[in-house]
Design goal:
Chain lengths: 222, 204
């Protein structure tokens, strides 16, 4: 059962198509797993539909409909083949524990092999082809470990893929979503007994406390 | 291939009048069922200038807005068979297509085409098929949301409108409401919470 969801401000920005690529991937990875948030999103899309209905129209060019009909007559869609024209080669990705699926939101992204980040900590860089500035990565933290205490200059979004972590606020399990902004300093700790894998997106800088923690941050480039 | 006019569900006395939500929804289904060009023309006439206005509001040039509005309506033709009237109103469905094309367009500028799948597709969500009585309320969703929005304060409606029609909505909301940027998010949340509560009363 999913207990933690993206908040309304985030979901509204997603419905409006206003999220940066990294944040959009995180919200999409949650939506894939969460019918409840799909329903919330649907309400917000409907707000978009109502606003579209009420907007003051701007006239199309006189030949617009003729051109649209000509495009329709031009045969099968130009976008249908594109869907299958994506690179056919199966992307190589680091392994996940059996039964854990890759979020579809990562389709088209490159995912690096697991890299050492510190004792009991590994990470993998997710490269978002359409936004090089997006800072998305996977963290794989061993059972019982904690991440260094940190806060954020803007926004850190996390979707739990496997295992469980907790901090001062709550416990987060697979399917759960966590969004923390500059108001929160936290020190996530992975539950003893099982490692934890999360997909994370960071906007702005993560501010670690302490020299070692800052070095770790510099490694990941966050 | 054009279909004879008698197969069309578009009757002449609609010209000039704003079609209702049910009519717009029926037009999409007529396009899906038998490639009804008159129904498509009616959809085009109604939605293309609105989609164009939406894109201009979000900072697109006139030319790009015209092209993307074209592309949106052509997608409506091509995707008509995937439209489920029990799930979404015509405006909501077409808004989502326009929103996705806009997002894709700006991604494409920097990279090869990324096909945006809908993360909430029904096929991915086996247990979201609406119950029969739920279906009725889903079909009326646009109507209910419109009613609920009428009951929001002018400021909350403005927050929703800016959220959809501004490129940098939070900065714009702060400016127009004269509030610090740091409190915008909580105002946005309040507006959505209020809307949900009103909607909950309309959709028991």
């Amino acid at each position: 059962m999913i207990r933690h969801h993206p908040d309304d401000a985030l979901l509204l920005a997603h419905a409006a198509g206003n999220l940066p690529a990294g944040a959009a991937i995180l919200v999409e990875s949650h939506l894939e797993a969460c019918p409840e948030c799909c329903e919330r999103l649907h309400v917000l899309r409907t707000v978009g539909g109502v606003l579209l209905e009420d907007i003051a129209p701007v006239a199309m060019r006189p030949d617009a409909l003729t051109r649209a009909l000509a495009a329709i007559d031009g045969g099968p869609s130009s976008d249908a083949p594109a869907a299958t024209a994506l690179p056919a080669a199966a992307p190589s990705r680091p392994e996940l524990p059996a039964g854990t699926l890759w979020p579809k939101a990562l389709n088209g992204c490159t995912v690096s092999p697991w890299r050492w980040l510190g004792p009991g900590m590994r990470w993998s860089r997710v490269t978002v082809p359409h936004d090089k500035a997006a800072n998305v990565f996977l963290l794989r933290i061993a059972a019982g470990r904690n991440l260094p205490m940190h806060s954020h200059s803007e926004l850190e979004l996390t979707q739990v893929l496997y295992g469980e972590f907790g901090d001062e606020r709550a416990q987060y399990r697979p399917g759960d979503f966590d969004g923390v902004d500059d108001e929160i300093h936290h020190e996530p700790r992975v539950r003893p007994g099982s490692e934890c894998i999360c997909l994370t997106s960071v906007q702005g800088r993560v501010l670690f406390k302490g020299v070692i923690a800052r070095t770790v941050g510099a490694l990941v480039g966050i | 291939m054009p279909w004879p006019p008698y197969l069309s569900i578009v009757t002449p006395h609609h010209t000039g009048l704003m079609p209702t939500g049910d009519e717009l929804s029926a037009f999409i289904q007529a396009v899906a069922a038998h490639g009804d060009r008159q129904a498509f023309a009616a959809l085009f006439k109604h939605f293309a200038p609105r989609v164009k206005a939406y894109l201009i509001r979000l900072g697109s040039s006139e030319g790009i807005a015209e092209d993307l509005a074209q592309e949106t309506l052509i997608s409506v033709w091509r995707k008509a068979s995937t439209y489920d009237p029990a799930h979404a109103g015509a405006s909501t469905w077409i808004f989502t297509i326009a929103r996705n094309l806009r997002v894709d367009h700006f991604r494409r500028k920097t990279h090869a085409l990324v096909v945006e799948a809908d993360e909430c597709d029904d096929e991915q969500m086996p247990d979201t098929a609406p119950e029969p009585d739920e279906e009725l309320s889903l079909r009326q969703r646009e109507h209910h949301v419109r009613e609920a929005m009428k009951q929001l304060s002018a400021e909350q409606v403005q927050i929703l409108r800016l959220s959809f029609f501004e490129e940098h909505p939070h900065a714009q909301i702060a400016q127009e409401l004269g509030i610090p940027l740091g409190t915008v998010k909580s105002r946005v949340r309040l507006a959505v919470t209020h809307l949900r509560r009103l909607l909950g009363a309309l959709e028991p």
